[in-house]
Design brief:
With 475 residues, the protein is of the alpha+beta class. It has 15 helices and 24 strands. The strands form five sheets. A nine-stranded antiparallel beta sheet has the order 1-3-2-16-15-14-13-12-11, with helices on both faces. The N terminus is likely disordered.
Amino acid sequence: MNNQVKRLLNLQTLLVLFCVLMMPLTTAQDDELVDALDTYLQAQTTVNRFMGNVLIAQADTILFQGAYGLANVEENTPNTLATIFPIDSLTKQFTAAAILKLQERGLLDVTDPISTFLPDFPNGENITVSMLLSHSSGIYDFVINLDGNMARLADDYGAVSMPNLIQLIADEPTSFAPGEQYAYNQSGYALATEIVSRVSGTPYEVFLEQTFFTPLGMTNRGYSTATSISDDIASRLAQGYHWDGRNLTPGETLSLPFAIGASGAYSTVGDLYTWYRALENHTVLTARLFNTMTDPIINLPVNNGPFNAYGYGWAVRSGVLFELFVGKAYGHSGGGVASSYRTMWLRLPDATLILLQSNVAETPVVQIATDIVAILNDGDYVLPTADIVTELAPDELADYVGKYELASGRVVSISLQAGALYYQLESQAPRQLTPTLTGEFVFDDGSRLAFTGEDITDGFVLSFAGEQVAAVKMQ
């Protein structure tokens, strides 16, 4: 990064360049609420380098939308409401909707074994389409060792392609018996992408275009395949960045065209809102199938922010939420492996929708959404303050290495790799822990982990979106 860009990242300069576009669209909008939201989002921009777009709606009424920061720091291009972002795992809702649309047409059923569509897949007669969509299939997740598997596809299997990816997944051992438990899994949605293509008789993205996007007028979207991004989409696509607590550096997003249905779509908050209205008004799917999509299918081993179960393409929660609501909430976050972006969708039981898109990978989108809920409901929240990251010597980090058991019985491994500490829930990809001067460690999504014990580490407490989970170190 050149000196000019570094100067742009200086706090004072970034504040001068800070760009916000707020568009109150209703005469009933509360100015105090808008001011509170804007003040909070500006604080997130200053402290956590949030750069991106926000939309908040109540059913068919937009309450607030704004564009913050820069779409491209090097070119000093501001984000606008027309800026397009990769939505990463929010793509899964489109894949789940495509499967359910094929079911509506009588072409498949979520209870079908995947051997119906992928006849050579090992144990496919015991793995259902439902298990792929609800992350309960137990098949190998190729992103756990993404770089290594990409090299294997190219070198050992001959090419990076969907047929070879399916074969690689098939060649690896499973993590558990089909349907036995939940483990977030990109491979399941890669296989679901292929099933959509085979059953519909058209490429996955063509089926979505013809079935959903074109009829709904969703024109601000694309996919992570070089051949399907128009010049207009490319010109409005935000550059992704990584924030390490000190510097903001451009990131690269790996194109995985064979896994397009897992994390490959691009969109704007406006088009996502159009999709939301179509879902809620049952334009996309019948009321019965939409409820199937957002009903809890399998419980999560650890709450994912406000969610405690998973449906089809959605994390969900039924019951009491934030001590404010009783009913069903659904949503999803996106970003992480091979991404320089973050996204968040949260739909509350009172039909409030919160959409967040950021072109900084470390933006704590779940915490931001949680705080926005508090702002909307006169609840308690804290304006963010900067974490001061530090460095610890490998021998200091080694004290934390070991296996820790959660109350659910699941095991977390804390490991030391190349001088950095990593947290890994069994069957999941590792996540880096960054030490801070407070003694806590932070994840790139803003969640925090504090190890417990005086002279000897005996456990940890994980804090995430207002909830805490404790673990005990195993002997």
